[in-house]
Task: structure prediction
Amino acid sequence: MNRKLDAYELKSGMTFILGALASNGVVLLADTKFAIDEGSDDAYDDKIIGEFYGILMGFAGVRRTFELFRAEIIDYVKDAQARNKIIPMEKFLLKASAITHNLSTRYGQDYDVLIGIRGKPSILKHMYADGGLSP
Result:
């Protein structure tokens, strides 16, 4: 049984990502179309990644900025793993928020991330370019 439903559409109206919390985890759905060269061409690729067990991240916005986000969050997790540290869900979200804010500030490009984390309870968060989270 679904406990919560969260969906958002990027300001440009081009990307749609739907996230749903279910009793046993999280589901994310997204379109795959990317605008290239400010809309002069299109390409298709995944907008949802699952780099870590139990964590899905979907994004909307400038892909290369999201790839920088992805690289930084991977480095953060690998560093913790190398030191045999377990990252609590809240700390992971705080780090993701800080990375999002720093990249948006540095490059001036908006992107949004929808993060679903399986757990007890599972969570679904919409992360804005300024690092803000909802709900």
Observations:
- The chain has one domain: 4-134.
- The radius of gyration is 15 Å.
